[in-house]
Amino acid sequence: MNRNRRKRLSSAFDMVADAKGILEAVKEEETESYDNLPDQIRYSDRGDEMVGYIEMLGEAYDYLDDANSVIEQI
Q1: Cα–Cα nearest to 73, from 7, 8, 13
Q2: pLDDT per residue over 4-22, tens digit each?
Q3: Quick one: pLDDT at residue 12?
Q4: What does the alpha-carbon distance between residue 26 and residue 54 come to, in Å, rounded to a whole number?
Q5: pTM above 0.85, yes or no
Q6: Residues 6 or more apart from 50 whose CB is under 8 A from it?
Q7: Which of 1, 29, 40, 42 could lock onto 47 through a cystine, CB 3.0 to 4.6 A?
Q8: How far apart are CA 50 and CA 56, in angstroms?
Q9: Spatial separation of the C-alpha atoms in residues 58 and 64, rounded to whole Å
Q10: Which residues have a Cβ under 8 Å from the Cβ of 24 and sit 6 or more positions away?
Q11: Each residue of 18-70: pLDDT tens digit?
């Protein structure tokens, strides 16, 4: 692989790392918001929805982590 393509891959790695940071911050904020809910809301459909979002954010983070692992191997 030539230098130009390696440089572009390095940029892609950095962008994915930035996206991971954003996802992690949003997940932490959503988790904190969920933890601060009153019990009647936490155990309602709204609370269940928030838990689903938190899980999806974790899943998206893992996908990006996998992507960066592959980029590193290249």
Answers
A1: 13
A2: 999 999 999 999 999 999 9
A3: 97
A4: 9
A5: yes
A6: 30, 33, 34, 37
A7: 42
A8: 10
A9: 10
A10: 61
A11: 999 999 999 999 999 999 999 999 999 999 999 999 999 999 999 999 999 99
